[in-house]
Amino acid sequence: MPKSLINLLLLAVLACQLVLLTKAESGFYNQHPAWLLLLIACSAAASCLLTRLTLLCQHLPSKQAVIKPLIPGLFAFMLLLFWQSIVVGYAISPVLLPAPSAIFNALINNLPILWADFKQTYLKAVLAGYFIGCLSGFVVAQWAVKSAFLRRGLVPLGNFMSAIPIVGIAPIMVMWFGFDWQSKAAVIVVMTFFPMFINSLTGLQSCDAIHKDLMHTYAASKTQTFVKSQLPQALPFIFNALKLNATLALIGAIVAEFFGTPIVGMGFRISTEVGRMNMDMVWATIVVAAIAGSLSYGALALLEKSLLFWHPSFRGNK
Amino acid sequence: MKKYLTDSQWFSLMILVVAIIGIWYLAALIMNGNQLINTLERKKQDWTYSQVLQQAYQVKRPMLPAPHQVAMELKKSVFERSISSKRSLVFHSFITLNSTLLGFLLGSILGIVIAIGIVHSKTLDASLMPWVIASQTIPILAIAPIIVVVLGALNITGVVPKAIISMYLSFFPVTIGMVKGLRASDTLHQELMYTYNASALQTFWKLRWYSAQPYLFASLKVAIAAALVGAIVAELPTGAQGGLGARLLSGSYYGQTEQIWAALIMAALLGSLLVWLVGVAERALLKRRGGLANA
Question: Per residue, what are the HEC states of A49-103?
Fold first, then answer.
């Protein structure tokens, strides 16, 4: 029983800090520095709870599915609480660092604007560029597998390109394809092409010789060999590139919008609101971008799990 | 077996590069030619194809500068200006290089520290690791202007804000690689350390640190390229006075395409030079360990 009592005590410390945040006027640490002790106690309590949860997770494997997401969740809660306490407690100017609550308010109050930005940047530029870039990278890798000449020439070029800051082509693409989403999609196509090319090539080449022989004894056609043997074995590599490209694409679109855009889009919003010192709006845009990025990454991970259930890296986890 | 010239890597690479330059010239002719024809027609002047052919590579602000135009601009801004001149690309490269290297150093240290924490503490593994991964699904570069403005308000300007953005981009590959590497030590060796009753510190310095080195260098190559991207992008939204990013931005404002291309090629050269340097360090170190260079 004392164990659960300690847990309750730790939670109570966290709750105290929350109450302090809502009840006290801003700048309370300036007036009563002693309250800082509560903040220290609160971080200690949170880390103590984290350790306990981790231990619990190991001892109760049956309830892991419930407990495991709680641990990073609590960690994030601790960080947000700390952030809010410092910003409100010392009355830090919102130009420097807005409080999480202010960011949340900006997010809720500006939903239509944020949705329009999201539509422009993500639904138009990112999706189009990502799709074209990944597909063309895969198709060229297909050719390179068949032709040793292409492979020998393109692989060093691809490795060279990976060292180049490709976002730098953004001003050129804006000049060629205009201010609208097409230029951003073009930047994304160039950015995502090489990771996809290198990864698919490695994957398609990793095909086991025994499998090839097996397909040959089955008298399988080239298409059948590709679909049933080569492609599944290349999928882990392809998903690697897809996941990497999902974040690259978002970064590319946002950075390309710094170089010129119609008056809508996430990169445009960030650069103008920084100019107007509306930091809560900037952070709200970042939150939207973070959610979009995490969701697309998560969706890809789910798709990978459903397609690659047979792969050792997934079977081993069970 | 007989060796053919066509089987060598250099041959394929050369043919491809020549082909790319050929396509480049052709594309420049078409794009600049169209631009030229449009201007001439707007001025209601007559034009012939031979005239367009002659002038396509001499347009003042071409849509796509031909390779030799870029090379001329590069030569002009690298060799013919004194290094301290604001028009010298070497000057701007050094500004970018400064923040890249500082950010890379900070990012590597941060990445290694986080990885050591994650490997040694189950709590950190469960609580921090998901957020390390999630941090990369956020377009970190979006934070670049904020960091620069916030630190500027605190009177921290110059190289530090850019280095912090480079650090943010470069710590992730190092963390992931190091976590993998620190856990990659041979089970037999780990058991040996256990029978020796080695402390965590001893296991770390005598075993884990060595198993992590090949992974570390693979990560460092990615990290230094990412740090360069971070430094260049950090120069964009704030109207930085110097650096390759500032060159890109001012070139884009004033339609100086040759300047953009020259800055871009300089960035490419800088990027591959940095990755190559890390590769040299990797080979030197792994050679001393007995040629694990392929790991």
Answer: HHHHHHHHHHHCHHHHHHHHHHHHHHHHHHHHHHHHHHHHHCCCCCCCCCCHHHH
